[in-house]
Amino acid sequence: MTRKSITNVSQARVWRGTMPVQYLYTAGVAGERFFQTLRRKGVFAVTTCAECQVTYLPPRLYCERCFADLSGAWAEVAPSGRVHTYTVVHEDQDGRPLDPPQVVAFVRIDGTSGGLIGRLLHLRPQDVQVEMPVDAVLAPPRRRRGGMDDITGFAPRRVLPRRRTP
Amino acid sequence: MSLIKRKPQRRVAVIGAGLSLFMRRALDTGKELAYYAASQALQTAGIRLKDIQAVVMATAPDAFDGVHMKGEWLLDGAGGVGKPYLRAYVGGGSGVFSIISGWMMVASGLFDLVLVVAEEKMSSCQPHPQGAFLTIFDHTIERPLGPNLLWIFSLEQQRYMAAYGIRNEDIALVSVKNKHNALAHPAAQVAAHLTVKDILDSDVVAWPVHRLMVSPISDGAAAVVLASEQVARRLSDRPIWIQGVGWCLDTSYWGNRDLAYPRYVEKAAWMAYEMAGVTEPRKQIHVAEPYDPFAYKELHHLEGLQLADRGQAPEDLARGRFDRTGELPSCPSGGLMGVGNPIAAAGLMKICELFWQLRREAGARQVPGNPERGVAQAWGDLMQIGTVAVLGVR
């Protein structure tokens, strides 16, 4: 018998399937402290390895370079930093146009070796500059739930008057 | 016929071991669990992360932790940042395969110090990690029939019982023994003092398997440090040698396997025994840690490991041969049925147990006498792999 190949792929019969599971994730020991600090105080909890001179944001319980235990090496930093790099998103995941386009930045947080991705708020795409200082815009204290949603985005730092982030 | 081409030239030792608690739902992330085990293993080996030249991480399906490519994600918790790093993955067999992978790295001459870590965080997967197993079956032939792992194991246990005239009471005794052994294990999740009646009074999940004949859902991690001979002798006054390793896969069609006897375990065992110079396993093996995710599996695997005659393991168990104080202690740790079953970590936990038993550091779990050689085994992939390691004091 000769082997027949299907030349029209629409002729191939298919069986549909799903992988029917969902997930409950925990933030971890370090992650839980980060979110509780964000919710209560509106600042970022970080851990520092003095020997490697690395300040971890998001915080880690251990130094990934030397494995030092950092569970007692906590500090808090203001939720502000600088635009390290950014992109202007014109289409959503499904290819639909975004109007207006969204500005998404990776913000290096001052006093740390890390940073966070967030939307840039209150400015036009043409006004974004690499290294521009920004502050996190947080949800009002009573609306914070201790998750990434507590950070609405980042906005250009105002020079005068200096408005403190709640 | 020889199963190995030639005996490897370089010897490899285990010089440190570490274990996290095994638990039902950890707040700790998988990375954090891995860190606890890995840092403890380094500490007992008396070395620091900078001394480690390469890292092996064993972790079972991504679908458990719910992070696709979780081997890479777990990197920092395993101490692998900036180092040659390998994810060892053969499903449930991964824990013992992790040490085989690490052994290859050292025996080959590539590295002198390798950190081997295994992690699983199964509690993330909802409503039950069994859901992740629904898709291990062939999508067109098997899945329309709706099989799950429990069916498959119940069918296998029933065939084992029918083939040799074994009663469910005989098998329930495995749960009694292992949960009791685990009472002496500080990391244990489901240690208990129970009777055969308690086991058989628990819910029938899929007859003949009762709930207390199944290992639990667990979060946990384990780790060991491997060293080449020269480095091991410098760093440790009691290195435990990896004398032999073996692994083997049966067909991926479970319906084409011998359900009453795990031939693939036998082949993996003989490979490891040949390398270790073991010709009479029942005389030369003094402590065993066979894989026991289901009660009958320990018996199945003891037979595959040549430590009991086919169909005779239940009788040996009943007369106390496999008790901690018996002729051949089996799962003195408490095994997966007692300590818990964070899949890959459970397999490496068995290696940790041999390390502690052979160094006579197992405390209240210590088997009597002077055990000089032990075997650990895990099983997995699509219920078709046997992974075996033989460890000894010389």
From TrEMBL, chain A:
All copies of domain ChsH2 C-terminal OB-fold, residue ranges: 74-137
First and last residue of the signal peptide: none
Domain ChsH2 rubredoxin-like zinc ribbon: 40-69
InterPro entries: ChsH2_C, ChsH2_Znr, NA-bd_OB-fold, Thioester_dehydratase-like
Pfam families documented for this protein: OB_ChsH2_C, zf-ChsH2
PANTHER family recorded: BLR3430 PROTEIN (PTHR34075), DUF35 DOMAIN-CONTAINING PROTEIN (PTHR34075:SF4)
Protein name: Zn-ribbon domain-containing OB-fold protein
Taxonomic placement: Bacteria, Bacillati, Candidatus Sysuimicrobiota, Candidatus Sysuimicrobiia, Candidatus Sysuimicrobiales
Automatic annotation (TrEMBL), chain B:
Molecular function in Gene Ontology: acyltransferase activity, transferring groups other than amino-acyl groups
SUPFAM superfamilies: Thiolase-like (SSF53901)
The name this protein goes by in its record: Thiolase domain-containing protein
Residue ranges of domain Thiolase C-terminal in the record: 257-392
Domain Thiolase N-terminal: 30-189
Organism for this UniProt entry: Candidatus Segetimicrobium genomatis
